[in-house]
């Protein structure tokens, strides 16, 4: 009997071992290579269900640069859902190394018949940044797109390219007059990111300080500061903007960044008044105090000393 039990135990152990090995081998055989995974997910980009396509795009974005070649091909697919989700995935990958090769296709995608594809193409180019300089001309055209989201993201993308987008300054100046406030705001910010190369936009940015939308005025003041000494003609408008509660922080910083003695001295009386205002925000007053300290005139230094004594 004991021998029989021993045999049964041995047989049970053997079958369990064989079964586990079989499961392990089967699992190994069914494991996808990354290339196979990418191929499978690309096919899902064309699935009839939107959530399946979106999930596939998200998964490809998580794979990273290894998915880029397949996604480039997917941007040429006849199905708009595939093109849109491919552009979305490329935007998610985002690193210059990963998607620099996509620039020609993304430029082409800016002409796609579907606005979502154009929108995501603009965003992807913006995430490439300065490496997308070859897309400047196409993004300038996109500033005239019929869809406001495309225009907004085209302006943002030009700003992300930075000084390399200097040729876009006239187009961005025109975009400051766009009917959509988000487009106007992004155009102003983009001019600031371009920096001193956007000097010709100073008159348009001065005008934008009077925009009916606060975020546009805020962005215009920021941009004038980033342009620096080249924005000296904006000093009177920036002094006036110190009275605008939505803008005065950026206006004060812009006056400091412009930095000429004439500009700073002209701002001193208004800056002192702001510094002495008990209702002004503390962070804003500290910025003003720093600017007055840098101006280094007797009146400015006296005001800063009095301010600091009250802290």
Structure summary:
The chain has 311 residues and is mainly alpha-helical.
Description:
This protein is mostly helical and 311 residues long. The protein folds into two domains: 36-175, Alpha Horseshoe (Leucine-rich Repeat Variant); 196-311, Leucine-rich Repeat Variant (Alpha Horseshoe). The protein has helices at 2-30, 34-44, 50-63, 68-74, 80-93, 96-99, 103-109, 115-128, 136-142, 148-161, 169-175, 181-194, 202-208, 214-227, 235-241, 248-258, 261-275, 282-295, 298-309. The radius of gyration is 29 Å and the shape is elongated. Mean pLDDT is 83; it is low at 7-29.
Main attributes of the structure:
0% strand, 19 helices, Leucine-rich Repeat Variant
Helix coverage percent: over 70%
Helix/strand class: mainly alpha
Beta-strand percentage?
A: under 5%
Count of alpha/pi helices:
19
Q: What is the alpha-carbon Rg in Å?
A: 29 Å
What is the N-to-C succession of helices and strands? Answer: HHHHHHHHHHHHHHHHHHH
Per-chain topology:
Layout: H1 2-30, H2 34-44, H3 50-63, H4 68-74, H5 80-93, H6 96-99, H7 103-109, H8 115-128, H9 136-142, H10 148-161, H11 169-175, H12 181-194, H13 202-208, H14 214-227, H15 235-241, H16 248-258, H17 261-275, H18 282-295, H19 298-309
Helix pairs in contact: 2-3, 3-5, 4-5, 5-8, 7-8, 8-10, 9-10, 10-12, 11-12, 12-14, 13-14, 14-16, 15-16, 16-17, 16-18, 17-18, 17-19, 18-19
């Amino acid at each position: 009997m004991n021998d029989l039990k021993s045999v049964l135990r041995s047989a049970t152990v053997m079958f369990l071992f064989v079964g586990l090995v079989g499961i392990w081998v089967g699992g190994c055989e069914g494991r996808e290579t990354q290339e196979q995974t990418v191929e499978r997910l690309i096919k899902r980009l064309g699935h009839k269900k939107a959530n399946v396509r979106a999930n596939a795009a998200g998964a490809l974005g998580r794979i990273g640069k290894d998915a880029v070649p397949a996604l480039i091909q997917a941007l040429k697919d006849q199905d708009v859902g595939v093109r849109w989700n491919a552009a979305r995935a490329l935007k998610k990958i985002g690193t210059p190394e990963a998607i620099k090769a996509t620039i020609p296709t993304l430029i082409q995608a800016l002409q796609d018949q579907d606005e979502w594809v154009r929108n995501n193409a603009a965003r992807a180019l913006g995430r490439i940044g300065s490496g997308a300089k070859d897309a400047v001309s196409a993004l300038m055209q996109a500033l005239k797109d019929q869809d406001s989201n495309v225009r907004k993201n085209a302006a943002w993308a030009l700003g992300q390219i930075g000084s390399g987008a200097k040729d876009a300054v006239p187009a961005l100046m025109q975009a400051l007059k766009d009917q959509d406030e988000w487009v106007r705001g992004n155009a102003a910010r983009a001019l600031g990111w371009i920096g001193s190369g956007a000097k010709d936009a100073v008159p348009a940015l001065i005008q934008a300080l009077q925009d009916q939308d606060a975020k546009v005025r805020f962005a215009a003041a920021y941009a004038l500061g980033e342009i620096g000494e080249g924005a000296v003609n904006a000093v009177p408008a920036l002094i006036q903007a110190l009275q605008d509660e939505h803008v005065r922080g950026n206006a004060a910083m812009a006056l400091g960044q412009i930095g000429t003695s004439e500009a700073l001295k002209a701002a001193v009386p208004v800056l002192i008044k702001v510094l002495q205002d008990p209702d002004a925000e503390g962070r804003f007053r500290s910025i003003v105090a720093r600017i007055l300290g840098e101006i280094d005139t007797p009146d400015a230094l006296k005001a800063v000393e009095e301010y600091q004594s009250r802290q």
